[in-house]
Amino acid sequence: MNEKSSLKIIDLHVQVNDKEILKGVNLEIKKGEIHALMGPNGSGKSTLASAMMGHPSYKITKGEIWLDGKNITHLSPDERARLGLFLAFQYPSEVPGVTVANFLRLALNAVQGKEISVLEFYKLLNNKMKELKMDPDFAKRYLNDGFSGGEKKRNEILQLALLQPKYAILDETDSGLDIDALKTVSEGINRLAGPEMGILIITHYQRILHYVQPQYVHVLYDGKIILSGGKELAEKLEETGYDFINTETAESVIEEA
């Protein structure tokens, strides 16, 4: 694989409303890899996701973001999307009056930079929905309007399947899901994961990692990644919670990071 084929975050500092939230994040995700980012509430996980996607409310004061050898730090969200970056939102917006199918066709046209024919689009959409075991009537509904939490997250996975980005950021995709919805969403992620896509799963809990197995797990604490390891790190977090961060051992790690 080309050495430049990665999503790389270098010493990233981010402010929100003049308050520094991220204080020097370093992270690299290569295609074919699944990373999990964990941490207590308020540690900066969703801030990192928004900053990576270029949300204007998140001000990068220092550091860089590189995608396949291209510096995207100051690019707009749509430019990042066209280069192959995707963000699945923790709280997807409701858009009454716009069907799922129409929204997805517009999104696909925007990312590809060209118009896809209606016939070609619906053929692609039907194939992806069949692959994800989704009812075709789902595409006729208004975007997230009246959707359950599980339906909203499945719609995000359907977007991921259609857009086929190089790198996908899944911001607390497991949030608010019951066990059946969690299994369904996890199955969708596993179907889409592969050598051409790098995935970052941002989560507060370990439970989604029972179904989607990451090769790398990172702990974000007070705006910095203080620990990294394999899936055993997530298992330790499940056993102890984030209390171990307050131990002398973890404090020494924080100081060295």
Q: Any overview of this molecule?
A:
This protein has a single domain (6-76, 83-216, 235-256), classed as Rossmann fold (3-Layer(aba) Sandwich). The protein is 35% helix and 28% strand. The chain contains eight helices and twelve strands. It has helices spanning 45-53, 77-83, 100-112, 118-131, 149-163, 179-192, 231-240, 248-256; strands at residues 6-16, 19-30, 34-38, 59-67, 70-71, 85-88, 95-99, 142-143, 167-171, 198-202, 216-221, 224-229. The strands form three sheets. A six-stranded mixed β-sheet has the order 6-9-10-3-11-12, with helices on both faces. Helix 3 packs parallel to helix 5 and helix 5 (149-163) packs parallel to helix 6. The two termini are 29 Å apart.
Summarize the model shown:
The protein has 257 residues and is an alpha/beta fold. It has helices at residues 45-53, 77-83, 100-112, 118-131, 149-163, 179-192, 231-240, 248-256; strands spanning 6-16, 19-30, 34-38, 59-67, 70-71, 85-88, 95-99, 142-143, 167-171, 198-202, 216-221, 224-229.
Task: Please identify, by name, the CATH architecture.
Answer: 3-Layer(aba) Sandwich
In round numbers, the mean pLDDT is 90
**Would you give the CATH topology?**
Rossmann fold
Q: Shape, please? A: globular
Q: Can you give the helix content as a percent range?
A: 25-40%
Decide which structural class fits the backbone. alpha/beta
Order the strands across the largest sheet as they lie in space: 6-9-10-3-11-12
Total strand count, please?
12
Identify the CATH class: Alpha Beta
Number of helices: 8
Task: Write the H/E string, N to C.
Answer: EEEHEEHEEHHEHEHEEEHH
